Amino acid sequence: MKVRPWAARGDLRLTAHVVAGRYRLDDLIGRGGAAEVYEALDLRLRRPVAMKVFHPDGEAPTEERCADEGRLLALLRHPGLVTAYDRGLEDGRPYLVMQLVRGTTLSRRIAAAPLTPAEVARTGAALASALAHVHAAGIVHRDVKPSNILLEETGVPYLTDFGISRLRGSDARTAAGVLLGTAAYMAPEQVLGHEAGPAADVYSLGLVLLESLKGELEYGGVPLAAAVARLHRPPVIPAGLPPALTGLLEAMTDPDEHSRPDAHACVRELSAVPGGLPGAPPEAVPGADDGGRTDGTPRRRASGSLRTASPFRWMRRRRAAGGRLRSRQSPPAPPAAPA
Fold first, then answer.
1. How far apart are CA 309 and CA 118, in angstroms?
2. Which of 61, 202, 254, 304 pairs as cysteine with 259 (C-beta 3.0–4.6 A)?
3. CB–CB of 22/44 below 8 Å?
4. What is the sign, positive or negative, of the torsion defined by CA atoms of 267, 269, 275, 277?
5. What confidence score (pLDDT) does residue 168 get?
6. How many CA atoms within 13 Å lie on the side-chain side of 217?
7. What pTM, to 2 d.p., does this model score?
8. Is 143 a catalytic residue?
């Protein structure tokens, strides 16, 4: 399906303006709470770029936030992530120059029509691969959502907006009890005010894939209600999906962060879904040869040969034993009213 790129009315004081004597701002292509994103032309290299211009009255010190995002992007090199080229300050407004992705956002694509299971598997595998690279660099995104995912005209996805991302173990400069992220996509541990690790990004991606399949938010409503809802009911998985995809979505959105697969495992499972990424050998996926472990220690058979274990073997055992993980194709029945 052909989806028209998003459009917005730009700030006429900025469009056609040349920043730092080098970047000519053209059309506004996106707007968020902290910044606007313009298509621009690098007059020196004669190439189109995207320029993120931060608001001077943002929630955080904008120059510091721009610098943080630029430094994080500079650490990353992956085909599913935009490349940062430059950053600076113009008339008191920080800016970040990045690779331009022509297309639309996943949120607009979902609004046009839900994605098929095969499309979700392909898109999810690419995004999980990008997250695996991000996590391997020690970074947690903390705001994975459809509006932060760009789709090229060919459908290739890019994970963007690292504005509230951070290096694990670094000072996040977040006051206790302050929630960072978007309520509809937060992991339960984020809602409870706990530290968000890589598992929180996996949970958010699970909700994004569910929304792509269903064409609607899993947890809608006002932010507080949307955030709290996941503490009371699990996501509803649509019926009729390939079993591997159903099992993966259940695992990705497990309320226990320690029970979720990591991003490497998600890549492998999504690639195995019918219509997913065909012909990708396990060694082509970063981390696939170590069974999804992040400590670099390969798993071995008793004979000593390397193996790639299915991360859902534990899930099948739990189901066979009558464990707590159950099908989420319908919400749990409410308790009976007292007599």
1. 23
2. 254
3. yes
4. positive
5. 67
6. 17
7. 0.76
8. yes
